Amino acid sequence: MRSLRHEACTTNWRSDGSWRYGVRGREEGDSVATGPTRGGAGTSLVVGSKGDYTFGSRIMKAGDFGSQAEYHFDLEALRNLPLFGKYYLQIGVDHERFAFSRSNDVFPYAISSVSAEIAISYWTGDVFFPLLKLEPGIYFTRAYVTRNSLDIPMRVATGIKINDSIHLVLGLAADPLAQTPVLPIGGVNWKINDKLNFRAVFPKPRLSYTPNEALELFIAGEIQGGVYRNGPTNDRRTNNALLEYREYRAGVGASYTPKKDISLEATAGWSFQRDFDYFRAGPDYKSKGAPYIKLEMSIGL
């Protein structure tokens, strides 16, 4: 998932690299995650899970393949260790998996990752903001893992206060296996008023309305996925090749925080496109659109 929620915000994880940036003190970031994470400074352990389902759609230029649906889940556990002042070391583990209803040599039946999470974060009083984050682990398709599946995605970010209502977010995301190894991360978070917040931060923009401390209503966009090492196939173009998988979608949802360290979120929307890109070997297939639903939960212990 690479993303844990915090109080009135949300965080994301790598899959996309998923960054999530906060609202009301909670943040999404991303997978997952690289936005602020859930749990107060006194919360030593945070456990988060996410599950979503994208309904079936056809793959363009692969019409004979039929309609393909996707199920995705992410499970993360993160521990907060004080360093000095408001700075913390966050360490944890993350397991993410995309499973598909149809597969062949080009389209794997599953895409998975198992990674550690190591971050130096700043406690703002509301959320942990990761300044540096590493996610060393294995990123693979099907059930085939080799040393070539090892990867170390990394993110560096900082926030710049313009005034009490506007903050800039600047940083870099690096992935040695990616088609573009280094990408800039940037955007702006605008607190329009006490109830309305607009987070224009790639890749998870979010417009939120908070009628009370426990409830948040939102409209959000999202890019999820990542880069994975494919297993052996009978197709020379995809055999042990690198696969970049992305899903582009947007939806509406609600987040409910009944207690400080418990958060629930539900989203429904439209997946505009899923992209299977073997960027070094050649094949690049894109799906048609389809609806999706998503549920998230995080608990601070």
Query: Helix segment count?
Result: 0
Helical coverage, percent range: under 10%
In terms of DSSP E residues, the strand content is over 45%
Instruction: Give the distance, in angstroms, between the N- and C-terminal Cα atoms.
Output: 19 Å
Task: Count all strands and give the number.
Answer: 20
Placed side by side, the strands forming the largest sheet appear as 4-5-6-7-8-11-12-13-14-15-16-17-18-20
* Structure classification: mainly beta
| SSE topology string | EEEEEEEEEEEEEEEEEEEE
The major β-sheet equals:
14 strands, antiparallel, barrel
- Nearest-integer average pLDDT: 85
Q: Could you say which overall geometry the principal axes of the C-alpha atoms support?
A: globular
Number of domains: 1
Q: Runs with pLDDT <50, length 5+?
A: 1-38
Supply Rg. Answer: 18 Å
Polypeptide structure, described:
The strands form two sheets. Strands 4-5-6-7-8-11-12-13-14-15-16-17-18-20 form a 14-stranded antiparallel β-barrel. The relative contact order is 0.18. The chain contains no helices and 20 strands. 0% of the residues lie in helices and 60% in strands. Strand 2 and strand 3 (25-27) form a beta hairpin. It has one domain (8-300). The chain is mainly beta and 301 residues long. Residues 1-38 have low confidence and may be disordered.
